[in-house]
Amino acid sequence: MRTLLLVAALALSTNALSQALRIQTLAPQTQISPALEVQRLAPQLIAFAGGEANFQNLVNGLASGTQITLVSGNQVVTFTPAGKMTSLQIAQTLENVRQSLISRGIATPTAQQLATALVGGALPTALGTTQVNGVVATTTPLGTNTVAQQSPAVSIQGGFGAAAAGAAAAGGTAGIRSNTSDSPFPRGMSDTPPTAVPGVTTGANSAPATTGTSTAPAGLRAR
Length: 223
Known about the structure:
Number of strands: 5
Shape: elongated
Largest sheet: 3 strands, antiparallel
Helix content: 40-55%
Order of helices and strands: HHHHEEHHEEEH
Strand order of the largest sheet: 1-2-5
Strand content: 5-15%
Radius of gyration: 44 Å
Number of helices: 7
């Protein structure tokens, strides 16, 4: 009887040890990015941030304490948070800012409006500029830059100019022809030879044709 109990105890201890080893060797779970966690908590923040790129930059910067760059149109705004936030803190902070801006009549803020609402400062609104307190401490002041945008026509002209310059540098000619003619004849004169007419001789050595006169036969004299 004692032998059976000893065998059973050994079997239980072996099973427990193997299970513990199996738990230790399990692969760790894949870490979810802060942007994905915040998106799951508050998906409305993507449109509020101005798109996927701004949302990623905003959440990753707040989570890691690195510089954040927000872009809207030709406006680029940068700032650096002083600390780090968890995904839940980021979602709560951004949602509070969103509700605050909505109460001021700003449902889709620009990059400058969103950054100002986060770090504090003069917030431009439809009713004028108002001073707001920030909710995110920063290590660098708010920086705003304006990027000049070229019209499509200017971009096309610039491309033609670059192509011509490249061809000239290579010792060749550009593949784009101008609207002027390369004919050696003056304007208004065709370089197509005239169509020949039967019975008519043309050329520089041909005598001009005589009209209105006739030649009498040699055997006839005038009376």
